[in-house]
Amino acid sequence: MARKTDASGDALVTIPKGEWRRPTRRRVVGIRDKLRSVYGIPIMPPHEQPLDELVLTVLSQSTNDRNRDVAYERLRERFDDWEAVMEAPNAEVEEAIRPGGISKVKSKRIQEILRAIDDSPEGRGLDLSFLREATVPEGQRYLCSLPGVGRKTAACVLLFAYGLRDVPVDTHVSRVGMRLRILRPGAPFEELHDEMLDLSPRGEELELHVNLLRHGRRTCHARRPDCPACVLARVCPSRQL
Ligand code: SF4
Protein backbone atom coordinates (compact mmCIF):
# COMPACT_ATOMS: atom_id res chain seq x y z
CA MET A 1 0.00 0.00 0.00
CA ALA A 2 1.53 3.38 -1.01
CA ARG A 3 0.77 6.63 0.80
CA LYS A 4 0.98 10.13 -0.65
CA THR A 5 -0.40 13.45 0.55
CA ASP A 6 -2.43 15.80 -1.60
CA ALA A 7 -2.48 19.61 -1.50
CA SER A 8 -5.07 19.59 1.30
CA GLY A 9 -2.95 17.34 3.49
CA ASP A 10 -5.43 14.49 3.15
CA ALA A 11 -3.68 11.12 3.06
CA LEU A 12 -4.07 9.52 -0.34
CA VAL A 13 -3.89 5.77 -0.20
CA THR A 14 -3.38 3.63 -3.25
CA ILE A 15 -4.04 -0.10 -3.09
CA PRO A 16 -2.62 -2.09 -6.02
CA LYS A 17 -5.17 -4.19 -7.85
CA GLY A 18 -3.48 -7.45 -6.82
CA GLU A 19 -3.86 -6.59 -3.12
CA TRP A 20 -7.45 -5.37 -3.36
CA ARG A 21 -10.21 -7.32 -1.64
CA ARG A 22 -13.66 -6.33 -2.80
CA PRO A 23 -16.22 -5.47 -0.11
CA THR A 24 -18.68 -8.17 0.88
CA ARG A 25 -22.33 -7.69 0.04
CA ARG A 26 -23.04 -7.54 3.77
CA ARG A 27 -20.68 -4.60 4.18
CA VAL A 28 -22.19 -2.71 1.23
CA VAL A 29 -25.73 -3.31 2.50
CA GLY A 30 -24.70 -2.16 6.01
CA ILE A 31 -23.31 1.10 4.57
CA ARG A 32 -26.42 1.54 2.42
CA ASP A 33 -28.62 1.14 5.51
CA LYS A 34 -26.64 3.65 7.56
CA LEU A 35 -26.76 6.21 4.76
CA ARG A 36 -30.47 5.51 4.33
CA SER A 37 -31.06 6.23 8.02
CA VAL A 38 -29.66 9.75 7.50
CA TYR A 39 -30.68 10.66 3.96
CA GLY A 40 -33.66 8.42 3.26
CA ILE A 41 -34.39 6.76 -0.08
CA PRO A 42 -34.16 9.25 -2.95
CA ILE A 43 -37.18 9.32 -5.25
CA MET A 44 -36.21 10.44 -8.74
CA PRO A 45 -38.35 8.81 -11.44
CA PRO A 46 -36.67 8.62 -14.89
CA HIS A 47 -37.43 11.86 -16.76
CA GLU A 48 -36.97 10.43 -20.30
CA GLN A 49 -35.06 13.51 -21.51
CA PRO A 50 -31.63 12.12 -22.44
CA LEU A 51 -30.45 15.19 -24.38
CA ASP A 52 -31.33 17.48 -21.46
CA GLU A 53 -29.36 15.22 -19.13
CA LEU A 54 -26.41 15.09 -21.51
CA VAL A 55 -26.17 18.87 -21.83
CA LEU A 56 -26.74 19.39 -18.09
CA THR A 57 -23.89 17.02 -17.31
CA VAL A 58 -21.53 18.85 -19.66
CA LEU A 59 -22.53 22.12 -17.97
CA SER A 60 -21.87 20.64 -14.52
CA GLN A 61 -18.15 20.21 -15.16
CA SER A 62 -15.92 22.35 -12.92
CA THR A 63 -18.75 24.35 -11.36
CA ASN A 64 -21.37 24.08 -8.63
CA ASP A 65 -25.01 23.05 -9.08
CA ARG A 66 -26.32 26.60 -8.81
CA ASN A 67 -24.13 28.00 -11.61
CA ARG A 68 -24.82 24.91 -13.71
CA ASP A 69 -28.56 25.43 -13.35
CA VAL A 70 -28.36 29.14 -14.20
CA ALA A 71 -26.38 28.31 -17.36
CA TYR A 72 -28.86 25.59 -18.31
CA GLU A 73 -31.91 27.80 -17.79
CA ARG A 74 -30.37 30.60 -19.85
CA LEU A 75 -29.65 28.16 -22.66
CA ARG A 76 -33.23 26.85 -22.64
CA GLU A 77 -34.67 30.37 -22.56
CA ARG A 78 -32.43 31.64 -25.37
CA PHE A 79 -33.09 28.79 -27.84
CA ASP A 80 -36.31 27.05 -28.84
CA ASP A 81 -34.86 23.52 -28.92
CA TRP A 82 -31.62 21.54 -29.14
CA GLU A 83 -31.58 21.86 -32.92
CA ALA A 84 -31.46 25.65 -32.53
CA VAL A 85 -28.56 25.28 -30.06
CA MET A 86 -26.74 23.03 -32.52
CA GLU A 87 -27.15 25.48 -35.42
CA ALA A 88 -26.52 28.73 -33.52
CA PRO A 89 -23.28 30.69 -33.87
CA ASN A 90 -20.95 29.41 -31.15
CA ALA A 91 -20.61 32.89 -29.63
CA GLU A 92 -24.35 32.95 -28.85
CA VAL A 93 -24.25 29.59 -27.09
CA GLU A 94 -21.14 30.62 -25.22
CA GLU A 95 -22.76 33.83 -24.04
CA ALA A 96 -25.86 31.99 -22.84
CA ILE A 97 -23.95 29.52 -20.69
CA ARG A 98 -21.30 31.93 -19.38
CA PRO A 99 -22.48 31.76 -15.71
CA GLY A 100 -21.53 28.05 -15.74
CA GLY A 101 -17.81 28.78 -16.29
CA ILE A 102 -15.34 27.64 -19.01
CA SER A 103 -18.07 28.56 -21.45
CA LYS A 104 -15.78 28.53 -24.51
CA VAL A 105 -14.94 24.88 -23.96
CA LYS A 106 -18.45 23.83 -22.91
CA SER A 107 -20.27 25.63 -25.74
CA LYS A 108 -17.99 24.01 -28.31
CA ARG A 109 -18.40 20.63 -26.68
CA ILE A 110 -22.22 20.87 -26.52
CA GLN A 111 -22.45 21.78 -30.20
CA GLU A 112 -20.01 19.00 -31.18
CA ILE A 113 -22.07 16.47 -29.26
CA LEU A 114 -25.33 17.63 -30.81
CA ARG A 115 -23.84 17.49 -34.32
CA ALA A 116 -22.43 14.00 -33.71
CA ILE A 117 -25.85 12.77 -32.57
CA ASP A 118 -27.57 14.46 -35.51
CA ASP A 119 -25.08 12.90 -37.97
CA SER A 120 -25.95 9.33 -36.99
CA PRO A 121 -25.94 7.01 -40.04
CA GLU A 122 -29.35 5.69 -38.92
CA GLY A 123 -30.87 9.13 -39.62
CA ARG A 124 -32.41 9.44 -36.17
CA GLY A 125 -31.65 13.15 -35.90
CA LEU A 126 -31.47 14.52 -32.38
CA ASP A 127 -33.33 11.58 -30.93
CA LEU A 128 -31.77 9.37 -28.27
CA SER A 129 -34.91 7.46 -27.35
CA PHE A 130 -33.37 4.27 -28.80
CA LEU A 131 -31.27 4.13 -25.62
CA ARG A 132 -34.35 3.09 -23.68
CA GLU A 133 -34.42 -0.26 -25.50
CA ALA A 134 -30.66 -0.73 -25.90
CA THR A 135 -28.63 -2.83 -23.47
CA VAL A 136 -26.58 -0.88 -20.95
CA PRO A 137 -23.24 -1.80 -22.62
CA GLU A 138 -24.66 -0.69 -26.00
CA GLY A 139 -25.81 2.60 -24.49
CA GLN A 140 -22.46 3.13 -22.78
CA ARG A 141 -20.57 2.39 -26.01
CA TYR A 142 -22.71 4.78 -28.04
CA LEU A 143 -22.62 7.64 -25.53
CA CYS A 144 -18.87 7.27 -24.91
CA SER A 145 -18.30 7.53 -28.68
CA LEU A 146 -19.64 11.12 -28.60
CA PRO A 147 -17.05 13.93 -28.38
CA GLY A 148 -15.73 14.31 -24.83
CA VAL A 149 -18.33 12.00 -23.28
CA GLY A 150 -17.01 9.59 -20.65
CA ARG A 151 -18.45 6.93 -18.37
CA LYS A 152 -19.79 9.39 -15.79
CA THR A 153 -21.81 11.38 -18.32
CA ALA A 154 -23.02 8.20 -20.00
CA ALA A 155 -24.14 6.80 -16.64
CA CYS A 156 -26.01 10.03 -15.81
CA VAL A 157 -27.95 9.78 -19.06
CA LEU A 158 -28.76 6.07 -18.73
CA LEU A 159 -29.70 6.21 -15.05
CA PHE A 160 -31.48 9.57 -14.71
CA ALA A 161 -33.21 9.63 -18.11
CA TYR A 162 -34.21 5.95 -18.34
CA GLY A 163 -33.60 4.34 -14.96
CA LEU A 164 -31.16 1.88 -16.55
CA ARG A 165 -28.62 -0.02 -14.49
CA ASP A 166 -25.60 2.28 -14.54
CA VAL A 167 -24.06 4.38 -11.75
CA PRO A 168 -22.22 7.68 -12.17
CA VAL A 169 -19.05 8.00 -10.09
CA ASP A 170 -18.26 11.66 -9.52
CA THR A 171 -15.63 13.22 -7.29
CA HIS A 172 -17.78 12.87 -4.12
CA VAL A 173 -18.81 9.27 -4.77
CA SER A 174 -15.24 8.21 -5.57
CA ARG A 175 -13.78 9.98 -2.51
CA VAL A 176 -16.30 8.57 -0.04
CA GLY A 177 -16.24 5.12 -1.67
CA MET A 178 -12.43 4.97 -1.47
CA ARG A 179 -12.32 6.16 2.14
CA LEU A 180 -14.84 3.48 3.05
CA ARG A 181 -12.84 0.94 0.99
CA ILE A 182 -15.84 -0.14 -1.00
CA LEU A 183 -13.96 1.25 -4.03
CA ARG A 184 -10.27 0.55 -4.59
CA PRO A 185 -8.21 3.60 -3.59
CA GLY A 186 -6.28 4.81 -6.61
CA ALA A 187 -8.41 2.94 -9.17
CA PRO A 188 -8.91 4.67 -12.54
CA PHE A 189 -12.39 6.04 -13.30
CA GLU A 190 -13.26 3.25 -15.73
CA GLU A 191 -12.66 0.66 -13.01
CA LEU A 192 -14.55 2.73 -10.43
CA HIS A 193 -17.62 2.74 -12.67
CA ASP A 194 -17.46 -1.01 -13.22
CA GLU A 195 -17.01 -1.61 -9.49
CA MET A 196 -19.86 0.71 -8.48
CA LEU A 197 -22.13 -1.17 -10.83
CA ASP A 198 -21.03 -4.53 -9.43
CA LEU A 199 -21.45 -3.55 -5.80
CA SER A 200 -24.75 -1.64 -6.11
CA PRO A 201 -27.69 -3.81 -5.05
CA ARG A 202 -29.90 -4.32 -8.11
CA GLY A 203 -32.57 -1.64 -8.35
CA GLU A 204 -30.74 0.55 -5.82
CA GLU A 205 -28.16 2.10 -8.16
CA LEU A 206 -29.69 5.54 -7.79
CA GLU A 207 -29.92 5.32 -4.00
CA LEU A 208 -26.29 4.38 -3.49
CA HIS A 209 -25.08 7.07 -5.90
CA VAL A 210 -27.24 9.86 -4.46
CA ASN A 211 -26.59 9.02 -0.80
CA LEU A 212 -22.80 8.66 -1.22
CA LEU A 213 -22.85 11.99 -3.04
CA ARG A 214 -24.90 13.63 -0.28
CA HIS A 215 -22.56 12.22 2.33
CA GLY A 216 -19.56 13.60 0.46
CA ARG A 217 -21.11 17.04 0.32
CA ARG A 218 -22.45 17.21 3.87
CA THR A 219 -20.02 15.21 6.00
CA CYS A 220 -17.15 13.47 4.23
CA HIS A 221 -15.67 16.68 2.85
CA ALA A 222 -12.58 16.54 0.68
CA ARG A 223 -10.45 18.61 3.05
CA ARG A 224 -11.86 18.16 6.52
CA PRO A 225 -14.19 15.19 6.80
CA ASP A 226 -16.44 15.54 9.83
CA CYS A 227 -15.68 12.06 11.16
CA PRO A 228 -16.91 12.67 14.73
CA ALA A 229 -20.39 13.40 13.31
CA CYS A 230 -20.30 10.63 10.68
CA VAL A 231 -22.84 7.80 10.86
CA LEU A 232 -20.29 5.55 9.14
CA ALA A 233 -17.38 6.26 11.49
CA ARG A 234 -17.54 2.83 13.15
CA VAL A 235 -17.15 1.02 9.85
CA CYS A 236 -14.76 3.43 8.12
CA PRO A 237 -11.05 2.57 7.99
CA SER A 238 -10.23 6.21 7.11
CA ARG A 239 -11.96 7.86 10.07
CA GLN A 240 -10.08 10.66 11.78
CA LEU A 241 -11.33 10.82 15.36
S1 SF4 B 1 -15.63 8.39 9.03
FE1 SF4 B 1 -14.76 10.26 8.12
S2 SF4 B 1 -13.60 9.56 6.33
FE2 SF4 B 1 -15.01 7.90 6.92
S3 SF4 B 1 -16.87 8.21 5.69
FE3 SF4 B 1 -17.18 9.24 7.64
S4 SF4 B 1 -16.52 11.37 7.29
FE4 SF4 B 1 -15.67 10.12 5.62
From TrEMBL:
This is Endonuclease-3. InterPro entries: DNA_glycosylase, HhH-GPD_domain, HhH_base_excis_C. Residues 59-218 form the HhH-GPD domain. It comes from Conexibacter arvalis. Its EC number is 4.2.99.18. It is an enzyme of class 4 (lyase). Pfam families: HhH-GPD. GO terms for molecular function: 4 iron, 4 sulfur cluster binding; class I DNA-(apurinic or apyrimidinic site) endonuclease activity; DNA N-glycosylase activity; metal ion binding. Keywords: 4Fe-4S, DNA damage, Endonuclease, Glycosidase, Hydrolase, Iron, Iron-sulfur, Lyase, Metal-binding, Nuclease. It comes from the Bacteria. GO terms for biological process: base-excision repair, AP site formation.
